Amino acid sequence: MRRFSGILLCVFLSLTVWAQERKIAGTVLDPDRATVPRATVRLLKPDGAEVERTLTDSLGRFEFNHSCSRECRIEVRITGFQTQTQPADQKVIVLGLAPVQEKVVVTATRTETPIEQIGAGVTVITGEQIEQQQQLLAADVLRQVPGLTVIRSGGLGTFTSVFSRGGESDYNKILLDGIPLNEPGGRFEFGSLAADDLDRIEIVRGPQSALFGSDAMASVIQLFSRRGEPEGARPHVALDFDAGKFRTLHGGADLNGAIHGFDYDLSYDRLNTDNEIPNSDFRDSTGAANFGFNLGQHTQLRWISRGDSTFAGTPGQIVFQPADLDAFFRKADGYTGFSITNQTTSLWDQRVTYTFARSRQRSLDPDLASAFLSDTRRHHLDYQSNLRMGTPDQRWGQHLFTFAFDWDREKGLLNDFFDPAIRAKRDNFGGTFQYQAAFGRVFLTNGVRVDDNGSFGRTVIPRSSIAYLLRQASGVLGVTKLKFNFGLGIKEPDFTESFSPSPFFLGNPNLRPERARSFDFGIEQRLWNNRARLEVNWFDNRFKNLIEFIATSPTTGSFTNIDSTKAQGAELIVETAPLKGFKFTAGYTYLNAEITKSEKPTDPLVGVGKGLLRRPRHSGSAGIVWDWRRLTLSSHAEYVGRRADSDFDFQNPPLTSEGSYTNWHLAWSVRVTKNFSYVGTVDNLLDQKYTEALGFPALRISYRTGARFNF
After folding, report:
1. Cβ proximity of 429 and 409 under 8 Å
2. 423 and 401 in one domain?
């Protein structure tokens, strides 16, 4: 009997110890109840000693291997959020936002990662910022991103190029929710891309071909469409309408919501404007849909679709000649994507994605007997698997392995009046391996991609970066982050360069890929209890094997890899929120970009040592957002310095540069009632007369006013 009583006592004591010394697990959320991945979570003894450290997974969950007494506490820390310390039995921990917030991004690593753990230069433009600025087109939102230069050839809807850190305009990989949007060869026309239905934009500067293959030579710009949010049983409806100068009419509608694991968002946007000069009218319609469905707790299906139809008059370089009154450009784009995401275990998740993109473009100029048609299509299939191991303590660290495989089929038809049609098809395969490691304050990201391209064959592209939190603290001097990034980039030839049968510009099937090599490093410093952030970056980019047209006779020619360029510079970024509801941002870019090898080494425009076209040495922006009671005021000014450009033989002697300019944008919103707001914008507030591209005058002062309804 005594033995039996002793056994019962031992069992009772064991159960008591198990109740007091138990494993700890929970979930970390932000104020909107969205999960926070890769936040640092520490298990602390009552005296503050650390028992164990880990990172939250992609669903914001954490679990400790060690047990702890009921008096233990959990500390959650991530830059841009307020540090939380709560009892160990707390299952859900909600983090408050810091005055200068930090973001979690996907594009930099293909996995959800806080910016503080990334070595590359990253900028996130939130949906709130897009709404505050009230810009109609996405390209105008990008103007404030350090390192980017946006050049538009006239008014709204005209040809628009984006240059990143001295790269060419077709060196940016453009994605919409993972759907590749570039035409074969890298070109993407930003002129008609609407901003209204976007939830956020992520920009990763520097070569990212190790993650995304061809075209990611100088940056990746990923657009994310809105998703339905469960704000109650009823769906949310938003309507907006505004009108203004140059007979501008703009309207949009959005319906979104969520119910029983199903979320949805449907939107439509329409813009009409005559712009300022004859035959420069612009008409654009955009429709988008985003549906998600949860199959249990671990699997989600998502379908995304977007269509864009555009008409734009093309009057030409009216600074040098009368407006062309019958030339125009039409474009119809369609994108769709379907994905299945599965959290197979707490340490392993997978995703399969299929996307399709088509762009049909037609330009007509009867005076020049020119009619050009481009019809390109891309099928894209992608599989990605992420495996997490370990914990981020100083000894072993936490490790995330990413395996990704993708296939692209590119097809196209290019045709005009005088030359035989180009019909082309290309299959590309790629495999990416990426290894991420967290050792206390050190975060490493190394990756390599093997790309097998239908035009130039197989190539290997590496990438490596490191982020080191030199200081983790609050107060006047807060978190200090050092970062370094190295990467290579590739870009395939376009269909004309590879497949053209015309003797006037004969395609070369033996072209090599254009290549980029980049180093960049920087420092980020948080100040005054996360009320300010200062970032300084330096970069060195080298581009080689640039494809150039070489004339073999007065009427014939072909393409070859011959040119090389370089771009070195620095970026300065300042963010501060000194008062509640008030934010100030500023950025400056210094860029030294020039030609290092040329087919015409002594040419005054494209010779060795000459500056790269339309890439200014000095540029910058500054802006404020003031949210006071019922008023939200957004004001941003952009400065672009002198840059090399060309009049393309209109003048004698030829013009080879363009002067600096400043554009000041102002937007406001007054919340009259809970459901109604009065909104308005003014562009080119100082009524400056300037051209972004030589010969194409920008719009003078313009305005729009209207209303926004939310139900």
Report:
1. no
2. yes
Residue 6 forms part of a structural domain: no
Q: Are residues 141 and 177 in the same domain?
A: yes
Same domain, 592 and 488: yes
Structure tokens at 24: 């700890």
Regions of the chain with pLDDT less than 70: 1-22, 231-233, 369, 392-395, 650
Residues pairing with 15 in the sheet: none
Task: Mark whether 554 and 666 lie in a shared domain.
Answer: yes
pLDDT value at residue 513: 97
DSSP 3-state helix, strand, coil percentages of the chain (rounded to 5)?
Answer: 5, 60, 35
Check if the beta carbon of residue 479 is closer than 8 Å to that of residue 473.
yes
Alpha-carbon dihedral of residues 360, 366, 367, 368, nearest 10 degrees? 50
Boundary of a domain, candidates 201, 222, 243: 222
Q: How many domains does the chain have?
A: 3
Could you give the CA distance from residue 170 to residue 558 in angstroms, rounded to a whole number? Answer: 20
Q: What is the residue type of 323? A: A
pLDDT value of residue 1: 46
Domain shared by 402 and 297, yes or no: yes
Alpha-carbon gap, residue 311 to 313, rounded angstroms = 7
**pLDDT, position 16:** 39
Q: Three-state SS for 358?
A: strand
Start-to-end CA span in the chain (Å): 73
Burial of 519 (C-beta count, 10 Å sphere; 0-12/13-18/19+): middle
Which CATH number does the domain housing residue 508 bear? 2.40.170.20
Q: Mapped to the 3 state alphabet, what secondary structure does 191-241 carry?
A: CCCECCCEEEEEEEECCCHHHHCCCCCCEEEEEEECCCCCCCCCCEEEEEE
Which residues, 6+ apart, have CB-to-CB distance to 392 below 8 Å?
Answer: 40, 53, 54, 55, 398, 438, 439, 440
- Tokens 């109840």 belong to which residue? 33
Same domain, 29 and 60: yes
Structure tokens at 510: 């033996």
- The backbone torsions φ and ψ at residue 106, rounded to the nearest 5 degrees and listed phi first, read -110, -35
**What domain range includes position 353?**
223-710
Instruction: Find, among 438, 432, 390, the residue nearest to 118 by Cα.
Output: 438
In this structure, the answer to whether residues 298 and 152 fall within a common structural domain is no
How many CB atoms sit inside 10 A of residue 667's CB? Answer: 21
In a domain, 15, yes or no: no
Q: Which of 306, 314, 358, 281 is nearest to 159 (CA)?
A: 314
